[in-house]
Amino acid sequence: MDQYPKIIQGGMGVAISSWRLARTVSQEGQLGVVSGTGIDTVVVRRLQDGDPEGHVRRALATFPDKGLADAVLDRYFVEGGIDHSQAYKSKPVPTLPVSQKFLDLVVLANYVEVWLAKEGHDGLIGINLLEKIQIPNLPSLLGAMMAGVDVVIMGAGIPRQIPKLLDDLSQGKRTAASIDVTGSEGHTVEVDPSRYGVSVLKRPDFLAVVSSALLAQVLARKCDPPVDGFVVEGHTAGGHNAPPRGNTGLDENGEPVYTAKDVPDLQAFRDIGLPFWLAGSYAGRLSEALNEGAKGIQVGTAFAFCTESGMKPSLRQDSIDGAVRSELTVRTDPKASPTNFPFKVLHHEETVSDHCTYEGRERICDLGYLREAYLRPDGKVGFRCGAEPVDDYVAKGGNEGDTEGRYCVCNGLMATAGFGQRRRGLEEPSLLTAGDDVTNIHRYLEEGEQSYSAQRVIEVLLGTSS
Q: Based on C-alpha coordinates, what's the Rg of the chain?
């Protein structure tokens, strides 16, 4: 980045950070960020919904491999959209060895989302990915780079191999990313840019999402090449949080106990010398962040509930109304996510945060992004998830206790963005995540208004609102 933005719009997963939101933020002079998480599913479901405004098809028309773009259209596009009672058509899931169809679709989908976010302006666009969801990451990076992405942001793990992968892809090299498999080593996912008709690509900057200076030092000094900067995220941020340091147990509400050990050492970040942004309830604290030596702040929750976000409008409005009435409750749930990372859950009676809704949902794992790869007794790679049917998980060598209280985060977040699967006439219930600052989202409402825009969020954050 030639110029550092003061505001990074958070990369909320599964289309909440949609191309529309990222494009709006970028046009306002800040860093707009799309989410690459599950974007292959999102794109094919947009096509099955009829792509009513033609955005996906417009982006596909520019994809270098016209044959691949046409094949995806032929398989998934439905003129006028499928009936609301009809199930979405399935798509390839992440497996090892990975299928070429899966790789192709992930490359294309990330290209589409970034291309739409960058269309018609020259502002900065980033993409957010999760280290925990390893198999799609390399093709996601390639697709995003083909569309000219400016910044890659990644957390939920230690993304030490990403800077080198970005170097290789920018030079058009066939390259491979290592994949963690419990009980085995040497597994990779490989992509070749020449397959899609590209050679030299612009290399984006890479910002690692971290919560400790120790991890930041490793990524800055022991990676070759080093990362380009950091988003320093505290435990009040939405989505997945880093676990507390030390054996602190749970409080009376069953939430992880965070202590002073979990407060990032900002002096250590200043000593590293790379640019950093502060995240986790930093909305309204831009001046404080700048005084601490940060280039600015990353804000997710405020943007998640603005009109340009990809959240289902009814959930968005209910949450804003709840904030006005001081009725919102956020819980840091240590069990919700199959990743074993604590996960912020915003309570809403029509989502899986409601006990009856959770118990009434059939356990199923058919998207597979958060599954654990493991070595089966026959020597092949298998996949298991604590949110799948309990008997299936145990049969795969999993501990039954690890299934208790697990949410299907993949399907739940897909439903929150309006792309919930329909099974036997029932639509997948949503899962809402938000940072602790969600209780304050009504601060962005102008007098007499019930909703707010991304532009309004930026004005308030920068202190330029009237």
A: 21
The span from the CA of 182 to the CA of 108, in Å, is 29
Confidence (pLDDT) at 418: 95
Determine the pLDDT at residue 224.
83
What letters, b where the CB count within 10 A reaches 16 and e where it falls short, cover 165-203? bbebbbeeeebebebebeebeebebebebeebebeebeb
d(CA 277, CA 103): 32
- What is the reported pLDDT for 243? 87
Q: What integer pLDDT is reported at residue 466 of this predicted model?
A: 56
> Tokens 């000219």 belong to which residue?
148
Type of residue at 248: T
What distance in Å separates the CA atoms of residue 48 and residue 42, rounded to the nearest whole number?
10
Give bridge partners of residue 209 from the DSSP assignment: 231
What are the tokens at 264?
A: 């990032």
Q: Give the residues of the chain that fall short of pLDDT 70.
A: 2, 465-466
Cis status, amide bond into 136, omega within 30 of 0: no
Which pLDDT score, from 0 to 100, does residue 27 have?
Answer: 97
What residue type is 338 in one-letter code? Answer: P
Beta strands 276-279 and 184-191 are: unpaired
Phi, psi of 180, rounded to the nearest 5 degrees: -75, 130
Confidence (pTM): 0.95
The structure tokens listed for 402 are 């690890």
